[in-house]
Each structure stands twice: as structure tokens, then as C-alpha cells.
Fold this protein.
Amino acid sequence: MGKLETRGEKSFRIFALVLLSILTLIAILPFILIIISSFTDESTLVSNGYSYFPAKWSLDSYRYMMQQAKVIFRSYGVSILVTTVGTAMSLLLTTSLAYPMSRSDFKYRNVLAFLVFFTMLFSGGIVPSYIMWTRIFHINDTIWALIIPNYLMNAFNVLLVRNYFKNNIPDAIIESAQIDGAGEGRILFRIMLPLAVPVSVTVGLFSGLAYWNDWINALYYIESPKLYGIQNLLIRMMNNIQFLSSGQNAGLLGNSIIALPSNGIRMALAVIGIMPILIIFPFLQKYLIKGVVIGAVKG
Amino acid sequence: MTKSSKKRTRNKNLALFAMAAPGLLYLLINNYIPMFGIFIAFKQIDYAKGIFGSDWCGFDNFKFLFQTKDAWIMVRNTVLYNLTFILLGTIFAVFIAILMSEITKYFCSKLFQAGLILPNLVSMVIVAYLVYAFLNPETGLVNNAILGALGKDPVNWYTTPGYWPVILVLVQMWKSAGYSSIVYIASISGIDKGLYEAARLDGAGKLQQVFKITLPQLKPTIIMMVLMSLGRLFSSDFGLFYQVPMNSGALFDVTQTIDTYVYRGLMTYGNIGMSSAAGLFQSVIGFALVMVANAIVRKKEAENALF
């Protein structure tokens, strides 16, 4: 730090450190509560409630989950499949639309830019979309309902990638490739996509998070629990307990595929639901931050 | 231009257009067809007659919608929650950013930032679980550990509307403050260090530097972010208002927003007319607000305008 620090500056720095420690703690404490709860003995949960200092620890929630492994693995599999396929398709669509838009010698670039941008300003709303997907394309109750509506491509990401191409890749690279006789497709796949790796990680992260966290598409388009991803399984587990504990609705759940989940199991499932984010995010933190900053500066 | 070079240009444009075509097709289907579908709001939809065969009913759907008490409640909730989120969210985000910029040299700043961003990376379903762990009447932490220890009666949180405006604001701040601070941190790191040096030489204390340099320098960013969120004044996070209160009917007075109303109208009550009218109302007002917000930004700071 080199420079002399006044006492005021030093105490401000310490104030910042202390306050940020507290704020960070507030941000992560709820997660710690569900993690601890998932390792708490069920009877302790029933008598004392969720607690940071459980009287008795237990692995029963996770053991029980292994017995229900079929249902849980299935929905985990759905989530993984939807997230990977969706993100891959999304990256391909986004970059292949963004690249031509970035080319200053492309005749229709402004028309495309307007078409992309306008979707950020106006939307037809959910009712026409719902009717279109279910009555015209009939994708309800198929895996495509989880992948295609809303998340496959969005204007924000397209503009992010277009700006990246525009600002970071000199025209000279394209020109020299053209002189060497490379076709447009070859330029895209052999030159531009490899150069776009950093922005692709950012866009892939946004898109992957959107798919992993999505439950709304399934809420609208999926009836069969077979196609529930982890988020919708979580919703179902929550509703089942609510139904059962409120008594008079219990009869409605005759064909429930999941046995009554206990308090601990629910939290264990939630822990499993956030696990991939906890594991992957630290590696991708800087890409996310970069994306947010660039996106805010120029959408 | 020679004939062959003209042909080459045409081929190039064609090839580039072909590349864009799949993405364009997706936009056409996912975004543009529904835009033309807004006519549904002006129809008395009868599936027996089909969407196109259903009778036109002019503005009847809107008339019915705005005669109900629901219309006032959902608009009021959407707007008031948004205004609160914008005001408190900006204050929190700027505050966190100022603190963060103070400690960028420390390794722990990366950890703090990761921790503060984490709530924004999980789904509203998970958030609903976290809130439930605190507020569940039987096993929740608040009723057991806090109210129990104070000797107070347990509260049935999910059926008592009075608490929810506070709960929802707290949840939203918890989820978004760290994430929103990212932009401000970047903006602070762009402030000319010389300004601070000069202020120090003049004997300005740290707080004075914050109020006389950091905040004024952040003003354009703050204004831009606020205006952009004002453009979304009539939109709400469906998950926050639907999933977090567990879709509890007793709370509708304080949790119903335009988005939850549209969902319930369409999926629960099968009232397509009212639902699509509310949706179109939201889209049109949203569009108008974005245009106004952008016009203001452009007047103030042309390079920050969206378009």
C-alpha cells in the first residue's frame, strides 16, 4: 500500500471489513441453516424446529433420499439434460446470430439489430405465448417445453456477444481469412468461435443458470412428474407436505409418487439442488462479473 | 464495382444471413408471434370456436378487469414493491460497493463478493425453501428459536398478510443487493484516483471523500440504473410473489402482482380474457415506460442511453 494512511482511513477500512463480514454472513446464513437442517435428526427437527445448533445430528435424510434415489436421480437427470442441451443450443444460436450482426460489411446488420433489440422493449406476454406453444406447436408435456420457450436465446446475450466481436476482433483477421479463401462458415467456426471463448463462458453461465434454476416453464407446460427437473420436484415436495399437514386435502394425494418427505429430507433435497451452483460458481465468478458489468454499460 | 465482385458481395450477405437465420427464426417464434397474439385480449376466447374464430369483444376484457378490486390491488402491489426495491436496492448496492472498493486489495474481498452474489444465483424455489426454514409455523427457526425464547406466541406467518410487505422486501434485498453492487463496484474502480489524492492533500477525511467524490462520480451510473429499473415498474419477479409466499391465498392482498394475476387467471381460473388483458396492459405500460426512461437518459447522457 506504500502510502501513508491516516487514522481515519485505517478505521474506515476496518469498518468496511467488519461490516462486509457481517453482510456476507447474512447472505450465506440461510444456506447454512438448510445444510445443518439436512444433517439434523428428524425427531429433533420436529420438537425443536430448524436450528443452527441441533441437539442431535443424523445422516438419515440422505439415507432416506438414497432409498428414493429413482425419483430424485430422474429429476436430477432431467435438470442436467435440459441445462446442458439448452445451454449448448443457446450458445450456438446466440453466437451465430451475433456474429453476422457484428460484421460492418453485412448489409442487413442494422435490420437484425433492430429485430433483436425490439424484443427487449415489447413482449406479447405470457398468454399468447402459452396458447402458441400448447395449441400450435404442442410442446406441452415434452422435454422441449423445458428447453425451447423463453430461454433458448435472448436479446441481452446476443448484444453482449455482438459487442464482444465488434470491440475485440479486428476486421483484419476476417479480411486475411477471406484472402486465404476461407468461406463465411469456415470463418465463423474456425476463427470467430475460438476467439469468442471468454464471452461464451459468460453467456453460457447466464444461460446455464437460467436453465438450472427454471421452474416456470414446467409450471406452465409440464403435467407429468416424469419430466420434473430438480426445481419442480422441490416444489412438489413442498406442496405435498403442506397438503398432508393441513389434513383435509390429504385424500387428494392418493397416487403421490413420493412418500411423505420429512422435514430433513426436504432440506437435503434443497441442498442437492444448489450443490452444482456452489461447486461451479467459484471458478466462473470473474466471468459472471465481467458479463454483468459489460451488460450494464451497454446492453 | 465489377460484376464478379457484386456477386461475391451478394454471396457473402447470403452466407451471413444464413448464419443468422436459425436465431432469427427463434426470435420470430418465441417473441414476434406472441406479439401478434395480443389480439387475444380483445376476444371472447372460446376454444370450441378456436382462437381465430372466437368473437371480438372490443375493450370488454379490460372493462371487466378494471371493474374488479383485483386490478387495483395488483397494480398497487406491483408499483409499490418496485418503488421500494428500487429505492432500498440502490442504497444497499451503492453502500456495499463503497465498502467493497475499500478492501479490493485484500484476498477476502473475493470471498465477500462470492458470498454476496450467491443469493442471486439460486432459484426462487430454493429461496422459498430458505424462507420456509425460518417461517414455517411448526418447525421454523423464527417461531421456535426466537419467538419461543422471548416467550412470545408463535405466528402463523403464511396466513398473516401484515408481515409480508416487510418479508418480501427483506428477501428481495437479501437476494439482489450483492449482485446489483457489481455495477457500482466497477464504476467506482473507474473513478480517477487523482481526485482522491488531491482531496487527501487538502486534508479531506474518508467520509468526505465518499460524499464529495465517490457519490457525485457515481451519480450518472445511479441515475441510469434507476431509470432502467423504472422502465420495469409494472413487471415483477413471479417467483418472489408466487413461490416465496407459498401461493398462500390468505396473502393475496399483499402478494398479488400483475404477473401472479396473469398466471392465476390463465392456469388456475381459466379466465383467458382477464388474464390476457392484464398481460397486455403490463406490456404496453412497460413499453411506454422504457421509452420515457430512455428518452430521459439520452437527454442527460447520450452515450448511456439504450438506443
Notes: Chain B touches chain A through 98 residues (CB under 8 Å).
